[in-house]
Amino acid sequence: MAQPDASATTRLRTDDGFTLVEVIVALALMSLVASAALYFFLSGTRTITHQQRTQNAVVVANDAMEAAYGVVAQPVDDVSGLLVGRSEAAVTAGWSTGTTLGVEGMAATYPAWDPAGTGQGTLPVSQERSLNGVDYQVLTLVGHCYRPISNTAAACSTVPGNLTDPATVPAGYAQMLRVMVHVSWDSVQSPCGDTACSYQVASLVDPNSDLEWNNTTRPIAVDDVAVVEVGQAVTVDVVRNDVIGFVVTNPVRNVTVTGGTGTATLQADGQVRFQAPTNASGIMTFTYMLKDAAGRESNTATVRVSVMPRAVDDTATTNRATPVTIPVTTNDQGTPASVQIITQPAFGRATPSGTGVVFDPQGGVGSPWFEYQFTDTSGLVSTTARVRLTVTTYANPIALDLTVGIAATQAGSTAPIDWVTLTGNPSGYQIEVMSSDITQGKLKINGNDYNATTNRRGTQLAYAQQGNVPGYWTVQYRVWTPDGSVSSEIKTMRIILVPTPANDSVNVTSGTTNNSINVGSNDAPNNFGGTVQFRPTSTSTLASNCGTLPTTQPDLNNGIFRYNAPTLPNGTNSRTCTFTYVIQGTGQYTNLVSTPATVTIRVGR
């Protein structure tokens, strides 16, 4: 039986693993390494956190200083804008806090405040600011210091021998303002020692009026534009794009309408409310200026307001073959200059005509519509409006029995016969002459002689008289629709050529008899021995002191009256007398009687 190898057994035990002592030592070493790593990690974290908070403090301090830069430093009512509202109590408390905190620059600065101040001021003495979850205490101290005029490189400090701020600026010195901003915050793991962490920044500001502080500029008003519909209002934030520094009140001034008829009203918040007119559109303008807390005024800016025109819907009615002119812009709001058709009707045609539209149905019947816009005198385009149309078939034509009187003339003339008005038919209807018994003069259709075969129908009718004759004639006629589809019944038109005398005036001598007064020379007709004759009217009797018309009148056929003049009494130089007469037809024209004519006789010596 073989025996085990002792050396082999010993080798196997050596390779079995770490001993307990070795394990304990290894764990101890690992613990030391981990503790060291944790220490370095926590230390690094604290360092990073402190750096972040310090960087935030720089931002807070710079913001506070920028707020100071945004204030006009020049005095208004002897108080710098940096001090406005700061009470003595608030400044004294802030100065005491600054002394405790060790704010640099205080020893070379006199505290300053607003005698009328009641609190922290426009630029707060102290305030709290949170940034990225950290609370920062911000102390902003502002005070006076003095620099020798002869040495601008000298430090700005207190005046030797003056423990308090001089009431007046000492000779040879220039008064400056020192702004000191101190920011503090609670430390984390005491990186700042036993006190809170802090950061501070300071700057000198020259408030003197002979210099412009380059951190603020004179206000700059920038032009604006706005759009509003006619009759409506728009509020314009005119300051939005302007450049202006510190202000304590509404900076907008001198709002004036310079173009158009709207109104511009300044609001308490600095915006301007522009009310557009209700009866006009176009480009309208108003101007304004700015004024900052230092009293400096800006340039004049112009606000250009486009007052948009508004088109209003319309209606119209016509028949299928009668074009109609529609004054579409009459009820629109704006200042129309031209019209544009946006959508044509389903039938017919809409055509702009000036500021109106002509619609031609072109034979269609129904309820079409079209849409339009108009352009105003400044080039602005209105909203779109719709015109609703009612297109009917033709109304039945009307014919009536008519009597048409035409005044006779000596030489003859053409008189239009307004048959459309007399019958009540619409424009565009046509008259057709069926027959005529006219033997003197001519009937005219559309300006040409009536002819039963070739010219008997048209829209215009007239009678051309022969001249110097009375008469009456009968015409048979009927009326057609414009398209000739429907006619009326036949009716009679009686044309009467009425005798027409003219007034006369003559002079005769007192006491003379058998005076010839030729009144017929200007009458029509004047063939007094033929178709017409004179006839004194029932009102023709002369006054008792105006002489007489002899019973026998031998020259009436020649248009002459005989007249016996009265004898004027002593002291009377003239007398005016009158009588009237008519012309009456003879034979078949006996019933043709003119209106009366007046003869005026002036009897003189």
TrEMBL record:
Origin superkingdom: Bacteria
Keywords, sorted A to Z: Membrane, Transmembrane, Transmembrane helix
InterPro entries: N_methyl_site, Pilin-like
Transmembrane segments: 20-42
rRNA-binding among keywords: no
Designated name of the protein: Prepilin-type N-terminal cleavage/methylation domain-containing protein
